[in-house]
Amino acid sequence: MSQEGGVDDFGLPPGVRDEYLQGARDQLGAIAELAERLIAASDDTEAIEALRRDAHRLRGSAGSFGFPQASVVAAELEDAAKQWLEYPANGTGDRGQAARAFVRRLAAALFTKQPLAASPPLPPIARAEPSPPAATESEDVSDVPEVIVVEDDPTLAELLTFGLEARGYRFVHFHNGREALDMLRTMDTRGTAPLLLLDVDLPALDGYSIFESLQQECPGKFRVVFTTVHGSETEQLRGLEAGAMDYMVKPMSLRVALEKIRRWVGR
Hints:
Elements: H1 16-40, H2 45-62, H3 68-86, H4 95-111, H5 137-140, E1 147-150, H6 154-166, E2 171-174, H7 177-186, E3 195-199, H8 207-217, E4 223-228, H9 233-242, E5 246-249, H10 254-265
Parallel strand pairs: 1-2, 1-3, 3-4, 4-5
């Protein structure tokens, strides 16, 4: 990113786009929760109106911060919400899924890195070999997940991964304990300690057994948070005393879960 004259490649002061993206994550998280409300009740006019307002705000701001495609998608979402309000009996069964699709498109438009134009090559320097560019931390870990979800409940897994995608996190999801443990053992985390959301009640291999194996073979490789429907004090103490970072009790609010994840991940 160029910063000549105190502005970046988009004519904004350095750091302003990053600050905008932090706010956009929260906006997109709110839109994602509204989409889930429409999955549950497609005629929820309060949710549709809130969706229209949020899309309108994002439509007006994204292009100004260098995300024109996000403005285009937000405009389409706003128009769709207007149609749903104007014609409440039409297409009720598809509204929630349509809203989810818009959230995914918005996440891609906001958080997918766009390649910059290549700079012209410098002329060779006599009797000196050019040094290769140093790898940055973001390049080193760009393929390492920030969040790993191990959850066999397809509905909850879809909800969590949908929210993570909406917030722009790098994540992977495993459906059963055996598959998860095999992959976690060999995963190269490059010293980042990803957040591991680990369901206690898993088929093939339960969460406690996975955690015990990881503690023995690669302690500290992951920051573990157990997810469970068993929220008793005894159950939570069992995991915390074994070394888990925290617990999330199911059923869970998507908004609360994403806020906790934001604090655990640090962004």
